[in-house]
Amino acid sequence: MLDHCSISHKVLWSRSFTPAAAQAAASSSSPVNSLIREALIEGRTAEDKYEKDGYAVKWSFVNDLELIFVVAYQRILQLTYIDELLATLKNIFVKLFEPFLATFLASLHAATSGSAIIASGQSAASWNFAKAFENWDAVFDRILHGLESKAAQDRKARYKPVQISIEPSPPSDDMSTIPSQSAETTVDEEQIARNVQALKNRLRGKGARGGRRGPGRSDIGSGRESLPGSDSDTPVKRKTKTKTQRKWGEQAPTESDMASLDFSYEKPGDADANRGSLDLNALVDRDSLGTRTQNGMYEVKDWEFGLKDSAADDMISKALMSSQTSKPTSSSGSLGALGSLFARLTGSKVLTEDDLKPVLEGMKQHLMKKNVAKEIADKVCEGVGESLVGKKVGGFQTINAAVRLALSNSLTRILTPKTSTDLLLSIRTKLSAPLPSSQQRMPYSITFVGVNGVGKSTNLSKVCFWLIQNGLRVLIAACDTFRSGAVEQLRVHVRNLSMLGVNGATDSKGRVELYERGYGKDAAGIAKEAIAYARDHDFDVVLIDTAGRMQDNEPLMRALAKLVATNNPDKIIFVGEALVGNEAVDQLTKFDRALRDFSAASGGVGKQRGIDGMLVTKWDTVDDKVGAALSMTYVTGQPIIFVGCGQTYTDLRQLRVSNVVQAILSD
């Protein structure tokens, strides 16, 4: 078994498996300290294993992140999985924590250069490694257990006792030694086999043809037989079943019969009936419910990027498989590299375009794999390259590490909101603003726009649930007067939302209503009427649902711009898919430009209004390929307010910049 394992820059993580090993690790003369002093700094060993005080020590490097992985065990033990363990630990640890480690190194270098505080606001001495690597113990246990089990199985297979089995000797090549067999016996066996097969064929044909025997009977004596489905069989015509028509009785359906089958509108008493039949637990996911602050505000959860247990297990298994197929590299191969690094701590290199070109090309391909639009990936990498040309890189830092750090800073700068994303604060500010005594308070209006089929109505209902939970009265305006079923869809959402409780209440009746005028009407006029209705009936927020518009369809975009110019909503939210890829640039650029141009041409109070924020849907379908967030933010300069990540009303999340950057930079 192992005695000690550690991951060091300064010591980031370590574990001792015996009290003696723990005591030895704490002393200055420990095998690990001796390894660093004698083998790494002084270069006094050329072997792939270092031995000290009865311990054998093996190590591996990650030069880009300045990490040393060390494993110590009793020299007398023959542990065959040590090289595989080091390779697996290095691979998985870097994949899990590379963004954190890159930021830590940046802070450390900034501190040594005289600037103790960097953009993240943390000093080099204030990092909490225990919290950062709190999940690493479980991952390490799974890796170690898997390798130990594999080694135990290999030992069992290697020392498996030989089982002596008495078997007849192999047949001789001498034909004279083969026992003779009578021809009669052979013929009898063949005939029996043919008889059995023929009987099966007849029974099968009897079942398929209703007992009628086909003309091709088996000739048992000659061994010739006709199988079902052969050319000799008579084809059987099967009767095709026709759809049974619905019988309405002797007379045609009456108007009352047709009315009972019409579900396009809610009938009196339907709400009470639905209340009893609808499973309210299916409308909300208790695990994804937000949290309430001390002042009673309901906040949606943050989207968190991290490997689930299954994903970590898959990564471990893949790493184990790859380590089996590839030959483990010896530690001595990297020894000279690290020795030269220790010797060149004060050295430096000035980066040139030729140095950065291959690294930036790899970064661009990585961004595109993360679903970042190609045009955006080109521009981001170009900006990173310009910021690094002429920069001095020294010490442990490599070109790849410098580019990765610069890319992380660039992504953080792009994704950081330029305006407030606190939508609830904006609503309460408007509602609490003082007004003249003769003027009525206007509701806060939010218009949801986007292309077809991205989930505007569904995610509008999620935002409505969030607003209701914060004690606001919401009016939903059905301004999609084109798509069949759009009004009915919103009616169902309003019915469901009215049944859900608010902060312990039994329902939300009266807190949400639907304003609709059917189909084929002017959407701008319906929105204006809805805002007036909300003002007269003391609604706090109006959520305006619009029809899907393709960015290249000028007549439809003019109609949408007319709605914006006429009603001047407080917030225009673009709803887009997380799967959009390269289309994000075209969609958002043309959508924003069309809104600004056509709203200015339409006149009204909402001249030259563009997109104010974004809501990204289907976020749960992309895993760590979250590049659409970067593309959308880069094009518009506006923040992502929410992301939709499920099918229930609670499946709404807020994005933190650090989580998105970590997901984009992850392998």
List the topology elements.
Blueprint: E1 2-8, E2 11-16, H1 19-26, H2 31-41, E3 50-52, E4 55-62, E5 67-74, H3 82-112, H4 129-132, H5 136-158, H6 183-208, H7 255-260, H8 270-277, E6 291-292, E7 298-299, E8 301-302, H9 309-325, H10 332-343, E9 348-350, H11 353-369, H12 374-388, E10 392-394, H13 399-415, H14 423-431, E11 444-449, H15 456-469, E12 474-478, H16 486-499, E13 512-515, H17 523-536, E14 541-545, H18 554-567, E15 571-577, H19 583-602, E16 613-617, H20 627-636, E17 640-644, E18 652-654, H21 657-665
Parallel strand pairs: 8-18, 11-14, 11-15, 12-13, 12-14, 15-16, 16-17
Antiparallel strand pairs: 1-2, 1-5, 3-4, 4-5, 6-7, 9-10, 17-18
Describe, in plain words, how this protein is organized in 3D.
Keywords: Endoplasmic reticulum, GTP-binding, Membrane, Nucleotide-binding, Receptor. The chain has 667 residues and is α/β, with parallel strands linked by helices. It is built from 21 helices and 18 strands. The protein has helices at residues 19-26, 31-41, 82-112, 129-132, 136-158, 183-208, 255-260, 270-277, 309-325, 332-343, 353-369, 374-388, 399-415, 423-431, 456-469, 486-499, 523-536, 554-567, 583-602, 627-636, 657-665, and strands at 2-8, 11-16, 50-52, 55-62, 67-74, 291-292, 298-299, 301-302, 348-350, 392-394, 444-449, 474-478, 512-515, 541-545, 571-577, 613-617, 640-644, 652-654. The strands form 4 sheets. It has a 9-stranded mixed β-sheet with strand order 8-18-17-16-15-11-14-12-13, sandwiched between helices. A 5-stranded antiparallel β-sheet has the order 2-1-5-4-3. The chain has a two-stranded antiparallel ribbon with strand order 6-7. Helix 11 packs antiparallel against helix 12 (374-388). The longest helix has 31 residues, at 82-112. The protein is globular, with a radius of gyration of 36 Å. The chain starts with a strand and ends with a helix.
